Amino acid sequence: MAETFLSPIIEKLLQLLTEEAKSLKGVGREVESLKDELEIIQPFLRDAEAKSEKGEVNDAAKVWLKQIRKQADRIEDVVDEYLYHVEQHRHQRGFIGSLRKAGHYIKALKPVYDIASEIKDIKESLREIKDRGVGYGLRPLEHGSSSRSIDVERRDPRLGSLFMEEDEIVGIDGASKELIRRWTEGPSMRSVTSLVGQGGIGKTTLARKVYNDAAVKAHFDCCAWITVSQSYDMKKLLRITLRQVGGAGERIEEDCAEEELISLLRHHLQKQRYAIVFDDVWKKDFWEVMKHALPNNDKGSRIIITTRNVVVANLCNESCFDLVQELQTWSPEMAWQLFCKKAFCNDKSVGSCPQELEQLSREIISKCLGLPLVISTIGGLLSTKERVYSEWNHRITDRVLYKLWIAEGFVRKGKNKTLEEVAEEYLDELIQRSLVLFEVKNGVDRLCKVHDLMHDIILTRAGELCFCQTLSESKSSLSERIRRLSIHHTTETVSEMVRDYRIRSVFLFDIHKCSKSFLSYLFENFKLLKILDLQDAPLDNLPEEIGNLFHLRYLYLQGTKVKVLPKSIGKLRNLQTLDITDTLVRELPLEVNKLRNLRHLIALSINKDIGFSLDTYYGVGIREGIGRLEELQTLSRVEAYPDRVGFMKELQKLKNLKYLGILKVTAEMGKALGVSIEKMNHLEEFSLTSINEDEVLDLNNISSPPPFLHWLQLTCRLQHLPSWISKLHNLKGLELNFSRLTDEPLRCLKVLPNLAFLDMFEAYEGEELHFEEGGFQKLKELKLYNLEGLKVVKIDRGALPLLEKLVFVSFPLMKEMPPGIQHLTNLKYLKIRGMPREFVVRLQPDEGADYWKVQHVPHVDSSL
């Protein structure tokens, strides 16, 4: 707690002392005195934190903590406001002239406040607060002291056994089997099952277990999982449903009426046996509309609805084939078993509660009200090693979280570690404590989420602390001193409701209209913004006034229609992240090269109107000067023109790059690119795309590839597979697209000890691929597309022992399922598309000659 909100303030004061306050006579001493006062208070805060963990903080001490936080906010406001006006004055008068006329700083600040007077007032308030803390029984606690007497070893959450079984989480084995039977063996009439119960009782987990069952997937023609929640857009949900069931919802006109969407969905489902889950339904109005889109087509279609509202559940119970199933809280004995598994998993006797803790543990369980999620969460808080698995609604990648935390100043510098590495440690601990849930995407990104019940708790607490708040059509009142604002659905009331210039972060969600007047108000009044997230907002222009946001560190424009970045963006000298993914920006202004603190420049866009080709992805053009941005860790995806070779040479200066993506690469750039890549010792992901499919790239001039590279994507024609790839011992994922290799690539790739994902699209022109014994020991996913010359695939016993997912698409010359596929005992999913009719017929369960090779695979998805 103390380090969370005081340490960044102390660092900010140190920044002021070293960079600015020396030019203000008298103020420097006041700032240093204030810093000293905060350092004196920190040990008292540690004591308050330690007692809070043991439940020993009284109401008076809680008020004391709130007062400390308020003063910390005041200090941040003073410093940020001061620095903002200094920066404005620099642009008006010139920095050198300002240093010579230091007194003019104070004059510039007087319309807001006298900084020296404000600091004195804060300092006096802190002293009074500190004295009251002593009266509340708080004592100085040295750094490193804690209410715990034993340090708990941390471990990486991605190692070992990551999740408990679903049955262990909520005891749903019997219920799920019965629901699966109802879904696959019941009558031909459409039926609706409503799972009802309070938050945290396991409705979503039960529904997800049924939905993900292999027999269920095989039984139905199409399936969809739709998360509804309290605030929903019916037209958007109809579109999502259409898309998931194969109705191409994304190609429907934006202004399509609700009635038309219902008709389209109903028509598409009329001849299908469909299975749909509507998760987290709150309002009966939802079902009154949605039911008209779900035909009772006498094909055995099934629907599950999860809800906390009994009225909603009963409303869906319209026929004798429908069922309302109310989930019950756990018995004390079941709750005890789960709690012990979660809280005491580190003991030698796994799940055994120490005798001296039994009484306290049972008291804790009694307060969990028999809710498995609450039991699991509390148990996770008492054990930093166990994890729990649940389902995801809205998810955010770990990389985005790191950028946001760093922009906010939440991440403290670690010894010999980057800020991103420290942020990863923070997230690991939250996962270990079961406060954040995640799933792994492509073996690289972690998609993170908190459970809806935990989300409610966090929002309530965040509002109490004035940490953040939501503004929406249904919630139009805000607390004073709010620091972070999440705006949902509309921006029309913002100017009326938000008049506090101290807001640091603004996020927009599902905004249908975003006027220029809103942006003008934003840039004029929120001058201390650090984070501005305008994702998917209906914007086509970014005003020049964006350059006035001196403190801005994170600018997220993904999904907007912005075409040009204004030149004033070069004034954002604190900017760390610039994300213009899926915008219409095609070239960066030269002023971007002034952003010396920029760590992440992300510009990947996807053309969704064409199939996969070299033109599917496009980035932004970068001119000379990119080498000045020496803090860059992410540069993806960029196009180099007009001096392509010069651009490659400038890359040599970016030695901190971890993620690099380059488009429109020509053959002449190959040598310079190789020299640059060899100097990027921190590179972890690299993507390269040639200028066209006929441009042959020679990438063999790299003798010492980046040692930590774990993801490589080559979308280009290659004469030979680069030999240095076999040296990438940390490589987890490899994509080869349009490579047209004539030499069999597997001999080079089979030795990679950590390769888990391999994709090949038009990558090989030979007739045979041979997966030899002992090769690809860690591979989990293998996807092969458009190998038009391939006739035979051989899989030796002992090859691909961990393979879980296999995809074959468009091998026109292959007549039968590869021999040896029966040895892949771990295979869970097999997808076959675009193969010759003879190939598909041989896989049919009844008379197929090759069916015996794949009958052990739980889910086989095959069609012509």
From TrEMBL:
GO biological process: defense response; response to other organism
Residues in Disease resistance N-terminal domain copies: 5-95
InterPro entries in alphabetical order: Apaf_helical, LRR_dom_sf, LRR_R13L4/SHOC2-like, NB-ARC, P-loop_NTPase, RX-like_CC, Rx_N, WHD_DRP
CDD domains: RX-CC_like
PANTHER family: NB-ARC DOMAIN-CONTAINING PROTEIN, PLANT BROAD-SPECTRUM MILDEW RESISTANCE PROTEIN RPW8
Protein name in UniProt: Disease resistance protein RPM1
Organism annotation: Morus notabilis
UniProt keyword list: ATP-binding, Nucleotide-binding, Plant defense, Repeat
Domain called Disease resistance protein winged helix: residue spans: 393-458
Keyword field contains Iron: no
